[in-house]
Specification:
The complex is a heterodimer. Chain A is 74% helix and 0% strand. By secondary structure, chain A is mainly alpha-helical. The longest helix of chain A has 39 residues. By secondary structure, chain B is mainly α. Chain B has 13 helices and two strands. In chain B, strands 1-2 form a two-stranded antiparallel sheet. In chain B, a hairpin with a 5-residue loop joins strand 1 and strand 2. Chain B is globular, with a radius of gyration of 25 Å. The chains are: A mainly alpha, B mainly alpha. At the A-B interface, helix 1, helix 3, helix 4, helix 5 and helix 6 of A face helix 1, helix 2, helix 4, helix 5 and helix 6 of B.
Chain lengths: 309, 292
């Protein structure tokens, strides 16, 4: 005997309005809305306050980092005219020398990494051969292995090699610009490859096909079509590498030798000692320099996106 | 599709072209194998060797350094580093998720880009300088202490610098953008009509958030967590400049072996264990990611 259940008409009395549940839901919504206004304010304040305080107090006419005593350029004057007193190991000559070292290291490392990184990006996007995924994995490693592990492993590696060279040939090798540059190139290749790859993937391959159809060989197609189109990507990858190299402390700290102190290593020596307005001034200058570099890199990527289609 | 370096579809030259594609990758592969993979292998070998008389590395092979790492002096530092990194990751997630949500729900593309840019810009500046800023803020004569004393809220400066708290603040400050960016990417892709659908089906905001928004933005959360955890566990500058003796982490231990007392094999072993922790983190990421 099959009995079918006939749905009864819903009566008005069946509809229960749970007033408490509704007000609870409304409260949740209000709390969420207020949270989404307050949290970003706190978040942006947290991200920006330290940097702004640092910059503001580099112009403060006092050693205080809490109260404002009027505007001065004295601290900037001090660092450029070797007037920093106290127990610091500061000297203008040392600072400028380490800046020069930084630019040399970053310049050479960026040049090598940009060439090698662009080549491997081209190979991965345009080439078609077995084992590509292993190269992918290899490029991924420097991004995920902690910096200090890279630094330590390079230090031990070079020491073993130098030891071996010394025992077999009698030549004495020491860490210096060479070891720093090799380390910087090793982590920069990945970053250049990532940026150039993105640019290549966005690029319309029909331009290259057209060049081939018009009789250009591979070499000519690359230099006349591909290269100009991916140039903004190469430049922004290079600028990224330059900035990373200029900012690097850990790998340089472990692999530099006497006389090859870079700016971050020099600044680290000062930071460890004390807080002074002069360090605020140097920090502000470093902030301005890296912001400018990144600004140019981002502008390049903007042009990138505009001309990629 | 016929790429200039890919003749796979047009026959004839295919073998030559494919080889050429491979040739372009050789410099990168050689460089990374020689100066990245080989050094990592050497570190593993050295971690099993003995420290010689004047800081040299000699045979025989030994497990001594690993025994010391898992012994009473060093093991607590490892546990504390893992603990600090986990707390950093959780706090970055709590602070970063709403912020990423805020950025990706701006109405115009311009406002969105500006909101995003304001997160990225501070983290493009030099890491040492950003960490130094916190030394300035938290120090005994720093911004917080002096301000509180000027306001007569405290009479004695608080010990803020050289504490675990300072390390935590510094790490969150340094890694927060790495949490925000991947979450932003996944929230931006999220179709908000799904929330409307959940509401129509009777879910309130809370339920819609946990049952619809969170599962669909989970890949971003996971990527953010791994991107914060790895640099935190490997941190060296932050605990060094902000932590003092209270905030010692693995990075400081390793540094001591290479710049201070100088037991290289012990430092190598500590690096190997640190890599192990990173690998575990990556495995968890791959596992959870596949299931999600």
């Amino acid at each position: 005997m099959a009995e079918t259940v006939i749905p009864t008409r819903i009566q008005h009395k069946d509809i229960v309005i749970d007033q408490r549940k509704i007000s609870r839901d409304m409260a949740t919504r209000r709390a969420g809305k207020i949270g989404l206004i307050i949290e970003p304010i706190v978040g942006y304040f947290f991200l920006w306050a330290p940097i702004l305080l640092l910059v503001i107090f580099s112009f403060n006419n006092s050693r205080s980092v809490a109260t404002w005593h009027g505007f001065t350029l004295q601290w900037y004057n001090n660092i450029f005219n070797n007037l920093v007193g106290g127990d610091t190991t500061f000297s203008t000559a040392l600072m400028l020398n380490s800046l020069g070292n930084s630019l040399l290291v970053a310049g050479v490392a960026t040049t090598i990494a940009t060439i090698i990184g662009t080549m491997v990006a081209l190979s991965l996007v345009r080439g078609n051969y077995p084992g590509k995924q292993y190269i992918d994995g290899l490029l991924f490693l420097p991004v995920v292995i902690p910096e200090i592990t890279q630094a330590v492993s390079l230090l031990i590696f070079f020491s073993v090699i130098f030891d071996f060279v010394n025992k077999t040939t009698g030549a004495v090798a020491t860490p210096g610009f060479g070891t720093i540059i090799i380390g910087h190139v090793a982590f920069n290749i990945s970053y250049v490859a990532i940026v150039v790859r993105a640019r290549l993937a966005d690029m319309n391959p029909r331009y290259e096909e057209a060049a081939r159809d018009l009789g250009a060989n591979e070499w000519r197609t690359f230099w006349r079509v591909t290269f100009p189109l991916i140039l903004p990507g190469i430049v922004s990858g290079g600028l990224l590498a330059f900035t990373l190299s200029l900012d690097d402390f850990v790998i340089t700290f472990f692999n530099s030798g006497p006389g090859t102190t870079t700016l971050p290593v020099f600044v680290y020596g000062l930071l460890k000692l004390t807080v002074t307005p002069e360090i605020n001034a140097i920090s502000t200058l470093i902030l301005i320099a890296s912001t400018l570099l990144i600004g140019i890199s981002i502008a390049m990527q903007g042009r990138n996106a505009a001309s990629a289609a | 599709m016929a790429f200039s370096l890919d003749f796979s579809s047009s026959g004839g030259h295919s073998a030559r072209e494919k080889t050429r594609g491979r040739v372009l990758s050789i410099p990168a592969v050689v460089w990374l194998v020689t100066f990245f993979i080989l050094p990592l292998i050497i570190v593993i070998v050295v971690s099993f060797m003995t420290r010689g008389s004047n800081g040299t590395i000699v045979l025989p092979l030994t497990l001594e350094h690993y025994q010391r790492i898992f012994g009473p002096i060093y093991f607590p530092v490892f546990l504390k580093s893992i603990w600090i990194s986990l707390i950093t990751t959780i706090l970055c997630l709590l602070a970063g998720y709403p912020l990423a949500f805020f950025i990706s729900t701006r109405k115009s593309k311009r406002a969105q880009n500006l909101a995003l840019f304001l997160v990225i810009l501070p983290f493009w500046t030099n890491f040492l300088v950003r960490t130094y800023a916190w030394r300035m803020i938290l120090g005994t004569e720093g911004t917080i202490n002096e301000s509180l004393m000027n306001l007569h809220i405290i009479t004695q400066p608080l010990q803020l610098l050289n504490t675990q708290f300072a390390v935590l603040i510094g790490l969150i400050y340094g890694e927060l953008p790495f949490m925000i960016l991947p979450i932003y990417t996944s929230v931006e892709r999220f179709d908000f009509r799904l929330v409307e659908a959940a509401h129509d089906l009777g879910a309130n905001d809370w339920r819609a958030f946990w049952r619809v928004v969170v599962p669909l933005t989970f890949p971003g959360v996971l990527a953010g967590c791994i991107l914060v955890f790895i640099p935190s566990i490997g941190a060296f500058i932050t605990p060094d400049l902000l932590g003092g003796t209270q905030g010692l982490m693995i990075g400081n231990l390793i540094n001591q072996q290479f710049h201070g007392t100088g037991n290289w094999p012990l430092g190598a072993a500590a690096s190997v264990v640190m890599m192990g922790i990173v690998m575990v983190g990556l495995l968890v990421y791959a596992r959870v990611g596949r299931r999600g």
